[in-house]
Amino acid sequence: MEESLKYKIALSMLPGIGGILARNLVAYVGSVEDIFSSSLNSLKKIPGIGEQNARRIRNSKVLEKAEKELEYIHKHGIKTAFYTEPGYPRRLKSCVDSPILIYYKGSFNPDKQRVISIVGTRNATDYGKRMIDDLVSAFAERGYDILVVSGLAYGIDIHAHRAALKNNIPTVGVVAHGLDRLYPALHRETAVSMLEHGGLLTDFPSGTKIDPQNFLKRNRIIAGLADATIVVESAEKGGALVTADIASSYNRDVYAFPGRSGDVYSKGCNQLIRNNGATLIEGIEDLEYFMGWEAVVRKEAVQSSLFVELKPEEQKVVDLLLKEKELFIDQISAEVQLPVSRVSVMLLNLEFQNVIQALPGKIYRLK
User: Fold this and answer.
1) Does the pTM exceed 0.85?
2) Among 10, 153, 215, 247, which is disulfide-ready with 252 (CB 3.0 to 4.6 Å)?
């Protein structure tokens, strides 16, 4: 187990080998360990690798770095999840460029049925803070089992984390460095509180320098962990708009709070809405409407599905959703013991018959 993790860390550290190429390597070679024992000629033949990357893989120094990282994470109680392991976040796994390995601390479930990312400017105004307070407190009032994700940065990010903690909602901060440090240091007290009700997550190993490019890179995780990304405030340019664009590329929902014409830190949101890059919301009611959220499945809706003539396998799915309320497609597949491809066709048919409703993140429930 320890030896296997060392090789997984090493694979994630290889320069020039991102998530896509790393997955390609594993698929062609068969195991992470065998990648590092494969010959130069064998590696060169793998699509996308070439001689330069093959030589990087054969460089044993990366294994030495991985060994040191392994010692560090054990010493400091840092947990990891590789993309082939059950603990890797479901939503993130479906993103083509997601990291192959993540490091995290805390106690949280990244696969909650509702996960929302809240992002925005570092120069949050009273208006933006009020929008966050109203939205997050509404999550708590309605009893939603929800996880709030943001980037622990100044402004909108840290206010979203603090609003979640205030309302006893778990919250995760995705950071752009290793878990051996915290940036900005001013947010340490909040981060410590998050470890007890949420956590910190990154794909960067310890010793990673604070680099502006890393903040843009980590935005793909903020977008990939969630069903939807909400931009609260943003100037005409900024990281929040990058996160929104990434979320759209993942076919996730993007929402934005509108601002007054001329307000500097609402220009980005207004621009997103104007260009159809985000759906306008003004509060929890709008979010519930667009996301199809309901606290309880209505009894009459369940009863109406019983009058549709269903095949035995379809009836199994309906009975399962009647019991569990909402489930991921792979959970349904496991419960009814049918392959995901077959379940996908069945769910589409049930959706056409107005029996079930598809939610973001491949979650299904009775209509």
Assistant:
1) no
2) 247
